[in-house]
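Repro:
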Amino acid sequence: MNNNYLSVNFDPPQAIKGPLGNQDTSAPGFSTGGFGETVNAIISAVFVVAGLAFVVYFIMGAFTYITAGGDEKLIEKAKKTMWDAVLGFAVLSVTFLVIDLISGILGFTVLDFTFVGL
């Protein structure tokens, strides 16, 4: 007689890997990673693109500042461009920390910067 009433043994079949249920994994271009890995890849890509945008935007502002030649309007424009880049990077950093905090509290990984082929 089994007196362990709270024991639950649930072993789902391997065919149920994602929110769409049983899928043909032999199709070309099909990834068996599931919905979570897709979301992770999208969020990681957004962070990489935003980081590159920061670098490009900041360099554009620095170049404008260097080539301003004493023109006050160009100097102010360059300072504003660089400040906007730094502010965007700060927002990106806070967003990264909030997502990492929430995923730590909920117990799953959202930000896993793993790039295929690198």
